[in-house]
Structure formats: C-alpha cells, structure tokens
Sequence to fold (130 residues):
Amino acid sequence: MKKILIIEDNTAIRENTAELLELNRFSVLTAENGQAGFELAKISVPDIILCDMMMPDTDGRQFLKLVKEDVITANIPLVFFSAGSLAPEIQEQLVTGKDGYLKKPFTEEGLLDAVKKASIIHHVNSIAHS
Fold:
C-alpha cells in the first residue's frame, strides 16, 4: 500500500483528497502547512507527497527547497497543485522529471493519474539507484 502525504491548508480540500485516496486503497497522512508537512515527511517517509503551492508561511517553493535539501526526503516524488495558474518558468523551476503538477480543481481521475505517474517514476528511479 502506497503512503501519500497531503499538504494543504484548506481543510475541505485536504480531507476530500485524503478520502478519495483512501477509497482507492492508499495510506494517507495529512498536514495543514509546509513546515508541518516537512516534519511529518522526515518521520514517515511517504512514497509520494502532494503539496499545495499557495499556502501561508511555508509555501510550495519553500517546501520544495526544504525537501530537496534533506537527505531523508530528497528523493520522494512531489506533485504540486494550485488553483492559480503559475507562470511557465515557475512551473519549470518547481517541477523536475520526477515531480508533477496538478491544477485545482482536479478530478479523481486526474489525481489518480498524477499519483500513478509519480509512483512509476519513483519506482524507476529506485531501481536505477539500486
């Protein structure tokens, strides 16, 4: 069972996303902001992290920096999501070959596709580094 960490400051979106993933047989952890999510990621080491871009305090950019600079979390695939449209250069900066971007509002199918892609890329990268 894949373990997914959802970091989202909007309670309804966080809970609805968690419920969708749990119904699809994922183990889900949640955090309401980037700093709490980063601390939880270091302790639980999820298979995938879903993170909102626009949050107070530690936003997606700051979270990305924290995660990528920590040896425990650096290789966890990230899928960022946002209601706003990001400039292409910012998307390019945030999303690498193993990370993804999902525009809100997203469908269950879109969410599951993003998780599936991140899982496949993570699996391929794990094999390559073995």
The mean pLDDT is 84. Strands lie at 3-7, 27-31, 48-52, 78-82, 100-103. Helices lie at 11-23, 34-44, 60-68, 88-94, 108-128.
